[in-house]
Design goal:
This protein is an all-alpha fold. The chain has two domains: 12-215, Growth Hormone, Chain: A; 219-407, Up-down Bundle (Growth Hormone, Chain: A). Helices cover 74% and strands 1% of the residues. It is built from 17 helices and two strands. It has helices at 15-22, 25-44, 49-77, 80-99, 103-130, 137-157, 162-169, 173-187, 190-198, 220-237, 243-251, 255-272, 276-283, 285-302, 309-336, 343-370, 386-406, and strands at residues 375-376, 381-382. It has a two-stranded antiparallel sheet. α13 (276-283) packs across α14 (285-302). The longest helix is centred in the first third of the chain and has 29 residues, at 49-77. Residues 1-6 and 208-217 have low confidence and may be disordered.
């Protein structure tokens, strides 16, 4: 593997890997806009939240059902064609949203999106890990997280520009939203085209038949890591996806303000990952994982007792920044403790095991927030604060299990 000799945080990252990471930006931008479109604009057009939930659920179901087969294929046959194909599928998915509001076609688009995401989950982290080592992997995952997060944040903020455009062009809201999708859909073809160019001639090592490349062996350690990490996913699902709802119920903050705030928070949070390689170098990779997530948990618990909206906004920003500083470190650690021939499967299993409880607990979190007022008045807790306390407790459980079982485990390659 050829390493760059330039100094700087991302200097050690191979040039091709840097370019691969930067090439993901158009699709990240489109994905950020897609999420806001589905969860915020669709309900404004009269499509019920139950339908929106089914659309998102359809995407998740396809991801879960196809993720493991694609992961096995990734480990057996290689990553690059799955990365290219997964991103190529995303562009027509976006174009369907641009050209129609027919619910049946929207469901088709959602399922295509789930297929593309499954291909990406099974191959992207593994592809990056295969081209890096212990000296530059933390920096690589940090850069990937920043580029993806920045694209997602900018995409989710795009609707802020729509009202002036509607006035200037004398166009309807639907026309402007659809035009944005059309532009982003065409732009999304750039990502797979760049991947095809950058990965030309890239030779992947695939296991010989005698190595048992299609079997599930050798994953005991990574499965244990994923199961313990799922407690964090369970806790996060209780409240993090419902942050805008919590701001509305707790402080009467409407989406006119919560939407831009969360978009700005997303951009700010993405760049918190700049510090990830530095923290890893100072503390060691696993200690950095526990320290950043543990510090984040303290701020998560604090949100249960905050009574001022501006303080809440600041505390949430710090909490999210610390937790998202942790995300690339988690990915780097998981890839480092997994055999190279199992990385695609490990990455997919970790994502699925994290997402399933996360999705379930979001439903529970919504029920708690919508419940009649209750709580523990003597310490100032109401039903609106309970999800933060439960989430923090689950974070502590997950981190405790990870620490007890992995504190002496060292990434090997």
């Amino acid at each position: 593997m050829t390493q760059e000799t330039k100094k700087g945080m991302w200097g050690p990252v191979p040039l091709r890997v840097k370019l691969l990471v930067l090439a993901q930006f158009p699709n990240s931008l489109a994905f950020g806009y897609l999420v806001i479109y589905l969860t915020a604009y669709f309900p404004e057009t009269g499509i019920g939240s139950d339908v929106v939930g089914l659309i998102i659920g359809a995407e998740g179901l396809v991801l879960v059902l196809s993720g493991i087969p694609f992961a096995l294929l990734s480990d057996r046959k290689g990553r690059k064609w799955l990365v290219i194909a997964g991103n190529a599928i995303f562009a027509p998915t976006i174009l369907i949203f641009a050209l129609t509001r027919n619910i049946e076609l929207v469901f088709v688009a959602a399922m295509l999106g789930g297929l593309g995401e499954a291909m990406g989950l099974s191959s992207w982290n593994a592809l990056l890990a295969d081209q890096t080592d212990l000296t530059n992997r933390d920096s690589t995952f940090s850069l990937s997280f920043i580029v993806g997060g920045a694209g997602f944040g900018l995409g989710s903020a795009l609707p802020l520009a729509f009202p002036p455009l509607e006035s200037a062009l004398n166009a309807s809201a639907m026309a402007v939203h659809s035009s944005a999708f059309l532009f982003l859909g065409v732009g999304s073809f750039v990502t797979p085209a760049l991947y095809l160019f950058l990965l030309r001639g890239y030779k992947e090592r695939t296991p010989e038949k005698k190595e048992g490349g299609m079997k599930l062996g050798g994953l005991g350690q990574t499965l244990k890591f994923s199961v313990f990490n799922s407690f964090i996913g369970l806790g996060a699902g209780l409240i993090i996806p419902l942050m805008a709802t919590w701001l509305l119920y707790k402080f009467a903050v409407r989406d006119t303000y919560s939407g831009p705030y969360l978009a700005l928070a997303g951009l700010t949070i993405a760049f918190s990952a700049i510090a990830s390689p530095w923290v890893s170098k100072k503390l060691g990779l696993f200690r950095a994982v526990i320290t950043t997530a543990g510090s984040s948990t303290l701020f998560m618990l604090a949100l249960a007792f905050v009574t001022n909206v501006y303080v809440a906004a600041g505390v949430y920003l710090v909490r999210a920044g610390l937790m998202n500083m942790n995300a690339p470190l988690m990915d780097s650690f998981l890839m480092g403790i997994t055999e190279p021939k199992r990385r695609g499967l490990a990455s997919t299993l970790n994502a699925i095991i994290w997402r399933l409880p996360n999705n379930v607990s979001t439903v529970l979190g919504g029920v708690i927030l919508a419940s009649p007022a209750y709580g523990v008045p003597s310490i100032g807790l109401t039903n609106l604060d309970v999800p933060w306390v439960l989430a923090a407790a689950l974070y502590v459980l997950g981190l405790g299990l990870l620490y007890a079982n992995f504190r002496n485990v060292k990434p090997t390659g």
